[in-house]
Amino acid sequence: MNGYQDELSKIKVMLKENPLGLTVTDISRRIKINRNSVAKYLDVLNISGQVEMRSIGPAKVYYLSQRVPLSALLNYSSDHIVVYNSDLVVVQANDSFLEFTNSSREEIINKPMEEAPALISRNPDLLSGIRDGIAGKESSIEVRLPFGETGIFLNIKFIPTTFDDGSLGVTLVIEDVTEERVAREELERRRVLNEMLLNSLPHPALLVGRDRVILASNQVARELGADVEGLCWRDFMQGEHISEKAKKYLSENDDAPPWTIHCSFCQADSALDTNEPQRNPHIEAIGKIWDTYWIPLGDELFLHYAIDVSDQRKMEETLEALHRSAITLSNAKSRNEVGEITLDILERVLGFNWGGILRVDEDKISAEHYMGFDIPEDWALPLSGSGITVRAAKTGVTQLVYDTRMDPDYVSPPVPYSMETLSELAVPVVVEDRVVSVIDVQSFDVDGFGDNEKRLLEILGQHIASALRRLKDENNL
Predict the structure, then answer these.
(1) Which of 47, 194, 220, 280 is 20 to 30 A removed from 17 (C-alpha atoms)?
(2) What percent of the residues of the chain are helix, what percent strand, and what percent coil, each to the nearest 5?
(3) Do 53 and 113 fall into the same domain?
């Protein structure tokens, strides 16, 4: 037995002195033992993991194993380590594992798995990983074990192990990742909460760091490209508003510049530095007009949201244009000129293509000035009959019809073989408590008009009424 061990030691010393490796013949010649015996000794050392073999052409070259001894792994690793043999008996454990399981070495070593601490022995996933490791399959799992309020999260690696006698086992390297996992779950909880809060806003909204990295965004913002971990100036604003210097750098380099890129209208740094909310109105971006806001949430984080004011801004501009154009009505010399100016305003300022102004007499309503339809000169609707314009004339109330197919009073335009319009807006013009005209516009689309159009036509109606009242006072009607 001692001779057997002596020969093994000689072979290991020889391989240590020859790190480039030796063949069976080389070793046989140097230690003067026949090749068959050397080959058997090398098989024993190979199985026990003390030497390694590589094939170079037809030759087998042996090297001293470079694996770290298990004892060293146990002594120097900060992880919890326990080693099982093929009978599921604990053969080694480091101090960290003993402390982790609150066990003594006597309670662990040479004990079968069912007698191991409950923290380890009662988890079925562990048993499966141990058996796979003994069978030579390396794997890893993350498990949550019941302990305290939150439990313990462990990342466990199962490493197939060969002992000195050639028998098989498995080494468990256990890393406690509870703190990291709890922190990750807390971050996820906060992310979900932040997203819920952001989603309650009807506008694009996102949480952004000073470095312009998006940390959270709502659905509206994501539809505009503001994904988490993206850059607000690049993904949300699509790079439209960064400086020419930044655009040039990005076009010439694959990496980010050494400075923080931001949009030209951005007030985020000012909000963070002063700890005061910032606003920048009427920003044109992504084909719309926005009122933009930056709300500081600390030194390095801010809430950014933008309100789409495109329709509001368009309405304001249209109102301004309407009031400017309506000045010409105050200079009109006749009712006919009032009608012509009205038609111009409807088409040029308000953008309507089908409609005009109708005259209301005691028993009928007739077209004075109309566009889009060729209306016969003798066309009229009796006030005693149907018609959305008739209803506006009789009631003195604006008629907004979203779908004319649902309105029994609808009368199609007096044009042979024409398409029926699908929505209509009729606004009465009242002078001295009497409806004298009706402004009428029509559309071939359902819901062609809304509250904005209604408001604009009613304002136009007031301007027309003022002009007609002046002409009446001047006896020019």
Answers:
(1) 47
(2) 40, 25, 35
(3) no
Indicate if 213 and 341 belong to the same structural domain: no
Cβ neighbours, 10 Å, residue 228: 15
Residue 477 has pLDDT above 60, yes or no: no
Q: How big is the CA angle at 150 (ends 149 and 155), to the nearest 5 degrees? A: 140
Give the pair of three-digit tokens for residue 99.
């402390």
DSSP letters, 49-86, are TSEEEEEETTEEEEEE--PPPHHHHHHH-SSEEEEEET
Residues in the chain: 477
Classify residue 232 by its DSSP letter: I
CA-closest candidate to residue 354, choices 374, 338, 339, 335 = 374
pLDDT digits (tens, 9 = 90+) for 228-266: 889 999 888 888 898 899 888 888 888 878 888 899 999
Please check whether residue 389 is in contact with residue 373, taking contact to mean a CB–CB distance below 8 angstroms: no
pTM over 0.85: no
For residues 111 and 114, give the distance between their C-alpha atoms in angstroms, rounded to a whole number: 8
Q: Are residues 101 and 171 in the same domain?
A: yes
Same-domain pairing of 227 and 273: yes
How far is 301 from 280, CA to CA, in rounded Å? 18
What is the tens place of the pLDDT at every residue in 272-308?
999 999 999 989 888 889 999 999 988 899 999 999 9
Name every residue whose Cβ is closer than 8 Å to that of residue 429 and which is 6 or more positions away in sequence: 357, 435, 436, 437, 438, 439, 461, 464, 465, 468
- Give every CB contact of residue 373 below 8 A, 6+ residues apart in sequence: 354, 413, 414, 415, 418
Q: Retrieve residue 329's tokens.
A: 């009505």
3-state secondary structure of 404: helix
Q: 256 with 334, same domain?
A: no
Tokens of 356: 């005009």
Structure tokens at 309: 């004011």
Q: Report the mean per-residue pLDDT for the chain.
A: 86
Q: What is the dihedral of CA 107, 113, 119, 124, to 10 degrees?
A: 180
